[in-house]
């Protein structure tokens, strides 16, 4: 059986779409119809997906795209394009469900790719827990320690709100971890067949 390695493409497409959408946010207020408002999720169901591509400001976009670049390329190279896209979008959608369940004010929108990126990281941490990453670009740590730190911050954020959609992060990382466990289990089962 021949193994065909795919070069990552979705990571670059997603970074491009997020960047273009962020630029468009400066020229029109129509983005409000794409942001995820918990109060209007029944009337605007597409916002479970479209809100992933919007960002509050340049710093929000920059940090999310840096994370997507490094973690996205790593995961997409491991699992392939189709599965990577599935993990990204499903994590983003469930991340919005997490925000819906935890939002203190349902009229404050959630925007950003964080939930989807947390899903990518959640899958990656299960598949490669001891991959070395640099926390805030400075401290070399195993990925499992970094993710545990981020999850603790988000759990704390549920009880001491900071304006960050901690529920979206947690929803995304849970979906990602489930994908990771499934893939790891499937790989183990295939090896023993």
Task: Give an overview in words.
The structure is a single chain. This protein is mainly alpha-helical and 193 residues long. It has a single domain (10-191), classed as Rhomboid-like fold (Up-down Bundle), CATH 1.20.1540.10. The chain contains seven helices and two strands, in the order αααααββαα. The chain has helices spanning 10-25, 47-50, 58-79, 81-102, 114-127, 143-159, 166-191, and strands at residues 132-135, 139-142. Helix 3 (58-79) packs parallel to helix 5 (114-127), helix 4 (81-102) crosses helix 5 (114-127) and helix 4 runs antiparallel to helix 7.
In short:
Helices cover about 65% and strands about 5% of the residues. It has about 190 residues and is mainly alpha-helical. It has one domain (about 10-190): Rhomboid-like fold, CATH 1.20.1540.10.
**Strand arrangement across the biggest beta sheet:** 1-2
What is the string of SSEs from the N terminus onward?
A: HHHHHEEHH
The number of helices is 7
What's the total count of β strands?
Answer: 2
Mean residue pLDDT: 92
Helix-residue proportion = 55-70%
Low-pLDDT residue intervals, each spanning 5 or more residues: 189-193
Name of the top-level CATH class: Mainly Alpha
**Biggest sheet, open or closed, and with what strands and sense?**
2 strands, antiparallel
Which CATH architecture is right? Answer: Up-down Bundle
State the end-to-end CA separation: 16 Å
The general outline is globular
Q: Find the CATH topology.
A: Rhomboid-like fold
**Strand-pairing-aware structural class:** mainly alpha
Q: List the domain count as a whole number.
A: 1
β content, as a range? under 5%
Radius of gyration: 17 Å
CATH homologous superfamily designation? Rhomboid-like
